[in-house]
Design goal:
The protein has 669 residues and is an alpha+beta fold. It has four domains: 174 residues, tricorn interacting facor f3 domain (Immunoglobulin-like, Sandwich); 107 residues, Orthogonal Bundle (Neutral Protease, domain 2); 135 residues, Neutral Protease Domain 2 (Neutral Protease, domain 2, Orthogonal Bundle); 96 residues, no CATH class. The protein has 25 helices and 23 strands. Strands 1, 2, 4, 5, 8, 11, 13, 14 and 15 form a nine-stranded mixed beta sheet that branches. A five-stranded mixed beta sheet has the order 17-18-19-21-20, with helices on one face. Helix 2 packs across helix 3 and helix 6 crosses helix 7. It comes from Flavobacterium qiangtangense. It holds the Pfam family Peptidase_M1.
């Protein structure tokens, strides 16, 4: 049986978190079959027809099963369905702030759309979605049409031209602003942000066109789809997701000019775009070969960064990855070519495996093999041997030995990786500087001065500052002042990080960190100054009064915490400050804001029952990181009888799902 197309007319119901619609399939029956199975988690079906005739069906908690009505050759299947998904389709916020988005990677699309969990079953998808007209609706493929249904609703018709696996189907609905660009090859690049973030387009999407143009050239195969769009959403589960033609990514990467110096979307941007070839155009046939998607996407993202930031940056990234892999290899014994491998292995070791291969066969041969591999298996499924066969066609490199060492063996080949890295002069110089760690300060002082005066890439200068951290201030003052003259935000940030104690006469210099174009540096400096110079706290609070910081409101929440902890600062406004901090724990904010606020409130007033209550709602949050934070905090608190009693007495007031988890936590001890 060969399924060809899936077309669906869908309606979203935000009030009760439901989705409903009509689905139409076309498929060919190639030989005699007993049952047609469609993956569908906890769905209700009606009006099921094959070839326009009503048929009987059975449904389980995971499938729709069909037994009769089809014939050899071409067939059609249609049905209506309804679902209230517990995962994969998320309704975030309410009213004008509502966003609806999907995350189907793995085998999860069948929670909201009757489809196929098997990645080897590829279809051409077309989705028509009805929703309120003042929202923007995004899906895969070309927007063929959008038109008003009535005074309040509009229908958006999206159509793919080529087949893809079901896990790559997406929806994103919200109040978005849009900007567009065109690639060198003529592809339309659509970029979306929430209307409240409209001022942040420039730095969030910085270098997007350059990344697209580079990857298309480097990969050697034209971008395989009709359009490319990206949208940032609230409380996304991961950094990003490479849905075909339409990447969803986390609002954590939405930044302004200053935030760009602390966190950028560039790596995730490049990674998800690379997946449009590696994962979307060709898809690994099973989890065992997952590195063919994540390793390639990670590596090509690093190559894109090399194009933007240079060889030294690229080699530093590869060095840091190598260090993480070396550390992890002490406990992580699952090799790359195994479906149970860790994310670190699939992504970072996968990237290193490709770097080793590229270094050994040569960039030209590597690129030729990749091009042949993509063209040969376009819109199909692949395994590792398919790729290595293309390497064998362009090089005599021993891929069997390579496969045994890099793909089938656990651990990390430090010696080979180091040999490749040391071809780069900066890495050699960094390692030489690292080797000075045990040398007395006086013996390396001049060398450190030379480094800080040089044009060395920042990690070498950062290492110098780490090595002098414990040196008496008077002895290292000249080096600190030299480092502070740097125009590199990272070098100055390293000074702020490592200079925890200094004499008062140095205060004017240290205060300049409060004006650096880095929210991270500002936060470090404000913490140090507030802690070390209590008599000047009001001055620092006045200066930082209107700071917001990153999307987690790191500076605003820090300011409120300090304002509350500074007894003499505006006592008449303490209640207002506390209420604002407490408000940031509510469901009106993203989990990063809520977690930050809860953490600070537990520091300010750990016994406040209003604060303790804020730990309960996150227990059922869809973002596992936030849920884990709440569980861990409650576990820590209930070791004390007073807190255990509070949470026990709270149980009857809670919703059933919250009650179940809290009860489980209370029963652990």
């Amino acid at each position: 049986m060969d399924f060809k197309t899936l077309n669906a007319n869908l309606s979203l119901h935000a009030g009760d978190r439901k989705i409903s619609g009509t689905v139409n399939y076309t498929f060919d029956v190639m030989s005699s079959i007993d049952t047609i199975r469609i993956d569908a988690k906890n769905m209700n079906f009606s009006d099921v027809k094959i070839n326009n005739k009503s048929v009987e069906f059975k449904k389980s908690a995971t499938e729709l099963k069909l037994f009769k009505g089809y014939k050899k050759g071409k067939n059609t299947l249609s049905f209506e369905y309804e679902a209230t998904p517990k995962q994969t389709l998320y309704f975030i916020g309410e009213g004008h702030g509502l966003e609806i988005w999907t995350q189907g990677q793995g085998k999860y699309t069948s929670h909201w759309l009757p489809s196929f969990d098997d990645v080897n079953e590829k279809l051409v998808f077309g989705l028509s979605i009805s929703y309120l007209k003042d929202f923007t609706v995004l899906s895969n493929g070309i927007l063929k049409n959008n038109e008003d249904i009535n005074q309040v609703e509009k229908r958006w018709d999206y159509q793919m031209e080529k087949p893809m696996s079901s896990y790559l189907v997406m929806l994103a609905i919200g109040k978005y602003e849009k900007q567009t660009n065109v690639s060198k090859s003529g592809n339309n690049l659509e970029m979306y942000l929430s209307r409240s973030d409209a001022s942040k387009f420039e730095y969030t999407y910085k270098n997007t066109k350059q990344i697209f143009d580079f990857l298309e050239t480097e990969i050697g195969v034209k971008y395989p789809w009709e359009i490319y769009r990206q949208v940032a959403v609230k409380d996304f589960l991961y950094g990003g997701m490479e849905n075909t033609t339409s990447t969803i990514f986390s609002r954590d990467y939405v930044v302004d000019e200053i935030g760009f110096n602390d966190r950028t979307y560039i790596n995730v941007n490049s990674h998800e775009l690379a997946h449009q070839w590696f994962g979307d155009l060709i898809t690994a046939e099973s989890g065992k070969h997952h590195w063919l998607q994540e390793g390639f996407a990670t590596y090509y993202a690093l190559l894109a960064e090399k194009e933007l930031f240079g060889e030294d940056h690229f080699n530093w990234e590869m060095y840091e990855i190598a260090e993480r892999l070396q550390q992890a290899s002490k406990k992580d014994t699952i090799p790359l070519l195994n479906e149970k491998a860790s994310s670190l292995t699939f992504y970072q070791k996968g990237a290193w495996a490709l770097h080793v291969l590229r270094e050994n066969v040569g960039a030209k041969n590597f690129n030729k093999a990749v091009k042949n591999y993509l063209e040969k298996y376009s819109f199909k499924n692949v395994n590792t041997d398919d790729f290595l066969k293309e390497i064998n066609k362009v090089s005599k490199y021993d891929t069997e030995k390579y496969k045994a060492i890099w793909l089938e063996k656990s651990g990390f080949e430090v010696k080979e990786a180091l040999g490749i890295l040391q071809k780069n002069k900066f890495i050699t110089h960094y390692l030489e500087t690292l080797a000075l760690a045990e040398m007395p300060f006086e013996n390396k002082k001049q060398k450190f001065e030379d480094i800080l005066n040089s044009n060395d890439y920042y990690p070498v200068k950062e290492e110098v500052l780490f090595q002098i951290q414990a040196v008496d201030f008077a002895e290292k003052k000249a080096l600190i002042e030299l480092a502070m003259k740097s125009s590199d935000v990272k070098v100055r940030q390293a000074v702020a990080k490592t200079l925890n104690k200094f004499p008062e006469e140095f205060l004017p210099q240290f205060e300049t960190f409060l004006d650096d174009k880095s929210y991270v540096t500002n936060e470090i400096a404000l913490n140090v100054l507030w802690s070390q110079f209590p008599k000047d706290r009001i001055k620092y609070l006045d200066k930082s009064r209107n700071w917001e910081g990153m999307n987690d409101k790191n500076l605003r929440i820090l300011w409120l915490t300090m304002a509350l902890a500074t007894k003499e600062f505006e006592p008449e406004n303490k209640v207002k400050f506390y209420d604002e901090l407490l408000d940031y724990t509510s469901i009106n904010y993203e989990s990063v804001v809520r977690q930050n606020a809860i953490t600070n409130l537990l520091y300010v007033n750990p016994g406040d029952t209003n604060v303790l209550r804020t730990l309960v709602n996150p227990l059922t949050h869809h973002k596992w990181q936030f849920s884990k934070f709440a569980r861990d905090k409650i576990r820590e608190l209930i070791k004390k009888d007073t807190f255990r009693l509070f949470f026990s007495e709270l149980l009857p007031e809670l919703a059933d799902n919250e009650k179940v988890i809290l009860n489980r936590l209370l029963s652990e001890n």
